[in-house]
Design a protein that fits this description.
It is built from 3 helices and 6 strands, in the order βββαββααβ. The longest helix is centred in the middle third of the chain and has 24 residues, at 51-74. 29% of the residues lie in helices and 32% in strands.
């Protein structure tokens, strides 16, 4: 039984300076720190995940996790699901930068029932909690093989 509310704790620590990398991790996995850096697009050094990368990764992985749960409950057989995304960073009407749109190309391979797969992909796009929690516009392309 799933109980709400839930709390997921994360932490980050960085030294000063635009060129210094920092680490971030989930409390549940403190030894699995992720190296972060300001990307070259924002005049940083790169060589680490950017907050924009982590944002897009969170959206994609929520989709995959939700799809897997729905597929399991629907007894959909498939070999793999993969997503390639483009995150568009732009300025809003007030000139503030924001993540305006994500284009997600979802491919499901080795599907036993393509009609069920299509229904589950659509259901996933409407019920993924992280996708539902952001104001970024979402655009999906589904391919079933």
């Amino acid at each position: 039984m799933i109980t709400y509310p839930m709390t997921f704790k994360v932490s980050s620590k960085s030294n000063s300076g635009i060129n210094s990398q920092w680490s971030t991790q989930a409390q549940a996995y403190p030894s699995a720190a992720i190296q972060m850096a300001i990307p070259p697009e924002f005049e940083g050094p790169g060589h680490g995940y950017s907050p924009e990368d982590i944002y897009a990764i969170a959206l994609q992985n929520c989709f995959i996790a939700t799809f897997k749960v729905f597929a399991e409950k629907s007894k959909l057989q498939f070999n793999s699901v993969q997503i390639e995304s483009d995150l568009i960073v732009d300025r809003d009407e007030k000139g503030r930068p924001w993540m305006s749109k994500i284009l997600m190309r979802v491919t499901v391979l080795g599907v036993a029932n393509s009609d069920t797969a299509k229904r589950i992909l659509e259901k996933t796009s409407q019920n993924c909690m992280i996708l539902n929690s952001v104001k970024t516009e979402k655009e999906f392309t589904f391919e079933i093989q």
